[in-house]
Design a protein that fits this description.
This protein has 115 residues and is mainly beta. The chain is built from no helices and 11 strands.
Length: 115
């Protein structure tokens, strides 16, 4: 069965950095696109970064130049490096594995950015 386990969230001061990790299992990771989403309190979940199976990427406009999504197929892990964090980046970050007919989600990891 598909499992996505996020880690790396926490409390960070504005301007700081965090690296989120998502360990995947139960499917053919190397052939699957992956994505990071976030959800702030009272807001809809939004896609932050996306990476195809061959490492093409796209980003939410507000994180371009600050966030980087990468993948390590040998470790079945996708990462989100977040630099120059701002308070608007706070929320629960979810790893996602889109598959035909269904999207799988991790349990989420919280990011809190303090001023």
């Amino acid at each position: 069965q598909v499992q996505l386990v996020e880690s790396g969230g926490g409390l960070v001061q504005a301007g700081g950095s965090l690296r989120l990790s998502c360990a995947a299992s139960g499917f053919s990771f190397s052939s699957n696109a992956m994505a990071w989403y976030r959800q702030a309190p009272g807001k809809q979940r939004e896609e932050v970064a996306f990476i195809t199976n061959n490492a093409r990427t796209r980003y939410l406009d507000s994180v371009k130049g600050r966030f980087t999504i990468t993948r390590d197929n040998a470790k079945n892990t996708v990462y989100l490096q977040m630099n120059s964090l701002i308070t608007e980046d706070k929320g629960v970050y979810f790893c996602s594995a889109p598959k035909p007919g269904r999207v799988y989600w991790g349990q989420g990891t919280q990011v809190i950015v303090s001023t």
